[in-house]
User: Which sequence fits this backbone?
């Protein structure tokens, strides 16, 4: 086993998304969105946006949820998508224009510190965009400052790693060959808010009333719907944090991980669906106090 001295690939901070990871997300946009589209749809259904509402979409990625929100709040409502990746906000602006959606705009900025001259907004939405703040208490206080009293927030957060086998089984393969330290609880990354008691404390300190949480649990298509096992392996190693653990490894280690992932994904492949692996998500609703 060789050593992995780089930062834990399970802990992606905001600055990672501003650069390399944002670019990788854009380059593989269809596959990334195919993996998490059902979760976004569940969160949008929960949020139940109405015409006329003004909405912030935090960590909007490629803009799919932002465009969906804009259509729901039209014609008099509007939505602002915020992402720390300029690659993604530029692409999202183009996608919205191509879709003919005009009550929408995108800003490249850090949602933890951004101030908006047209605040306050009525609603806040985020599909996996709120777990990477370096200082979450301060970040949620800032988000609160952008909202009117009584505004509702709807967030999707990854549940505990043990319930997200899509990530843990892949990391288990890599850990056979590379020494990767486990993620540190309550630090920025996909599982920053797996502990709901901690997340409620962050929310309350930021000025939000205690959250109501529902659970979304389903199989996820790794590499997108109908991806073959080889396609899923290529996607994971070239685009996801798992692949970063191999950046400094030799060809022998890379080949071994590739072979083991192919075996795993072949076992998890479902005809006409793709490589299906278990995921668990918290769908959270909370209210901004006055």
Assistant:
């Amino acid at each position: 086993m060789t050593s992995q001295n780089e930062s834990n690939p399970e802990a992606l901070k905001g600055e990672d998304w501003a650069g390399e990871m944002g670019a990788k997300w854009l380059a593989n946009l269809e596959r990334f969105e195919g993996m998490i589209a059902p979760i976004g749809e569940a969160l949008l259904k929960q949020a139940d946006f109405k015409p006329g509402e003004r909405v912030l979409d935090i960590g909007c990625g490629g803009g799919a949820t932002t465009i969906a929100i804009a259509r729901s709040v039209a014609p008099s409502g509007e939505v602002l998508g915020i992402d720390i990746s300029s690659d993604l906000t530029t692409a999202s602006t183009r996608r919205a224009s191509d879709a003919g959606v005009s009550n929408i705009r995108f800003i490249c900025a850090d949602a933890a510190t951004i101030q908006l001259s047209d605040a306050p907004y009525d609603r806040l939405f985020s599909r996996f965009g709120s777990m990477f703040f370096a200082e979450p208490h301060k970040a949620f206080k800032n988000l609160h400052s952008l909202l009117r009293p009584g505004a509702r927030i709807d967030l999707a957060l990854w549940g505990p790693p043990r319930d997200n086998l899509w990530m843990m089984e892949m990391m288990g393969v890599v850990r056979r060959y590379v020494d990767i330290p486990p993620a540190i609880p309550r630090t920025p990354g996909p599982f920053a808010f797996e502990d709901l008691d901690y997340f409620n404390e962050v929310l309350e300190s930021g000025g939000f009333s205690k959250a109501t949480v529902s659970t979304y649990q389903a199989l996820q298509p790794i590499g997108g719907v109908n991806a073959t096992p080889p396609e899923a392996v290529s996607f994971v190693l070239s685009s996801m944090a798992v692949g970063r653990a191999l950046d400094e490894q030799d060809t022998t280690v890379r080949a071994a991980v590739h072979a083991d992932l192919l075996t795993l994904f072949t076992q998890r492949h479902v005809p006409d669906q793709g490589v299906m692996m278990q995921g668990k998500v918290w769908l959270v609703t909370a209210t901004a106090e006055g």
Remarks:
- The CA atoms of residues 216 and 281 lie 5 Å apart.
- The two ends are 54 Å apart (CA to CA).
- The chain has one domain: 2-287.
